[in-house]
Amino acid sequence: MKKLLTLSLIAILGATSVRADDSHTPRGDLVVRVETCEAILREFMANPTTAIPRSVLQNARGLMILSQFKAGFIFGVKGGYGVLMVKRPNGRWSLPVLIDASEASLGLQLGAKSVDTVCVLTDDATPRLLFTNRFDIGVDAKAVAGPSSAEVEREAQRIFVAPVLVYSKSVGLFAGATVKAGHVQRNDKANFTLYNTSYTMPEILYSDWVTAPSEVQPLMAYVQQIAP
User: Fold this and answer.
1) Which residues contact 12 (CB under 8 A, 6 or more apart)?
2) Which single residue of 8, 116, 139, 152 has CA 20 to 30 Å from 49?
3) For the packed helices 27-46 and 188-195, what is the interaxial angle rounded to 10 degrees?
């Protein structure tokens, strides 16, 4: 049992270190991450049961789209990636910046689950939490489940004061996690490669110093369309 626990812990630490180093990731793979996040958002919006209400999107100050995978026995690791976009003061949406998403769990775990999540950020302060490298969703920024269209009116007072509204769907089987702490963190190395720039996340999000490459323009146009 001690050997099993030790090997599981090594696997967790190894997976975490791999996720954290994108310095040698080919640019094409990073483009795929952006395209995957766009596909996730489009899938959410195309399904009436998961679509984010227009009134919620109109109040959005930022969007995080996350793609994660969780698997394990005894110990589990949820690794993944995502993009963050913010609405600028002029009403236009920023370039998407790549971020890391991970979660470590302790408990009896069986099976695997892929999880797609869209987080609607309702204030300007929450995206800036990532400037200090990482923050825990639900701890550093209070998060509540995002409402459906039918729930918006009766839940308006509750939802629009929450900094993060979470919409999530999952595929697969997973059971038994008893302790977990999820976080997202900036990934400047990936953004250096994706945008061929030395500017960091705050500058990419809030300045006009970086030109949007063709690969990220479809996501930017779609977000501008659904959240004008």
Assistant:
1) 75, 77, 104
2) 139
3) 100
Cβ neighbours of residue 102 closer than 8 Å, sequence gap 6 or more? 16, 19, 68, 77, 78, 79, 80, 182, 183, 185
Is 60 exceeded by the pLDDT of residue 50? yes
Single-letter code of the amino acid located at 135: F
Provide the 10 A C-beta neighbour count for residue 184: 25
Segment 5-42, tens digit of pLDDT: 444 444 444 444 344 467 688 999 999 999 999 999 99
Taking only the tens place, the pLDDT of each residue in 193-220 is 999 999 999 999 999 999 999 999 999 9
Q: Which residues contact 200 (CB under 8 A, 6 or more apart)?
A: 186, 188, 191
- How far apart are the C-alpha atoms of 41 and 51, rounded to whole Å? 9
